[in-house]
Amino acid sequence: MFFHLWNGLVNALAIKQSCLICKQISAQLICRICCNDLEQFDLEQCQGNLLNLPAIEQVYSKLDAQALFAVAPYQWPLANLLTQLKFSNKIIHAQAIANLFNAALQKTNTTLPQAIIPIPLHSSRFRQRKYNQALEIAEFIAKTNSLILDVGHCLRHKATQPQTSLSGAQRRQNIRNAFTLASPLPYQHIAIFDDIVTTGTTVNELIRCIRQHNPHIQIDVWCICVSLANKHL
Ligand SMILES: [Zn+2]
C-alpha cells in the first residue's frame, strides 16, 4: 500500500506539467476539462468541410479551395495560445494545438491529402522570429497522419507587411506575387496550412501561384482558427 502511494506521489511530482490553459497539473498539454470546454466547430456535421456550412461559405465565398478545415473560431483561449506561439517563442504550444487539430480531423471521414504545405515565411521574418509557427504545428500534423510535409516547393520571396492592419484591397496588393513555386508539385491533392485564416487573402495568393503550375490539383485549406469577424476577402 505504502509502495503504491509512494509511486503515485513520485509520478505526480515527475509529471510537473500543467495545462497550458488553466495551469492545473495535467498529463496532457491541454487538460480534458479545458478541451471539453473549447468551442469547436462540428466538423462531422459538415463532412470535414466548413464550406458546407452556409454561414461560413458566405464569409469565405472567394476562397479558391475545395475544402476548409478549422478547429475553432478565433477566440480565447486558442487565440492566446496561437499568439504566444507566434510572438513569445512558446514552441510547446505547437504540439498542443496540433493535438487538437488531429483529434478534430480523426472525427471526420475526410480524404487526406498527399502533402501538407505550411504557408512559408519570408527569410527576413524567419531570421527575426527564428521559426515559422505554421510549420511547427504542421510538422506534428504531418507526422500523426503520415503526410508529406512539403517545405521545398513553395517560397515566399517578397517581404510583406503584416496583413492585420490593412484593408481588403491593401491586403491583396501587399501579398500579390509574394510566392513562387520552385517546380510544379508532384501531387494531385494537397492541404495548405496556416495557423489562422483571417480573410483568406494569403492562402488565396499561394493557391493562385500553385494553380499556375498545377491547374487541376485539389487544394484544401487547413488551419487552427478562422476569424469570422473579418468578412471581406
Ligand atoms: Zn486545463
What does this protein look like?
With 233 residues, this protein is an alpha/beta fold. It has two domains: 37 residues, no CATH class; 185 residues, no CATH class. Helices cover 39% and strands 16% of the residues. It contains nine helices and seven strands, in the order αααβααβααββαββαβ. The chain has a five-stranded parallel beta sheet, sandwiched between helices. A two-stranded antiparallel ribbon has the order 4-5. Helix 4 packs across helix 5 and helix 5 crosses helix 7. The longest helix is centred in the middle third of the chain and has 15 residues. It is globular. The mean pLDDT is 88. The structure holds zinc ion (ZN). The site of zinc ion (ZN) has 8 residues, from helix 2.
Oligomer: single chain
> Quick one: how many beta strands?
7
Number of helices: 9
Number of structural domains: 2
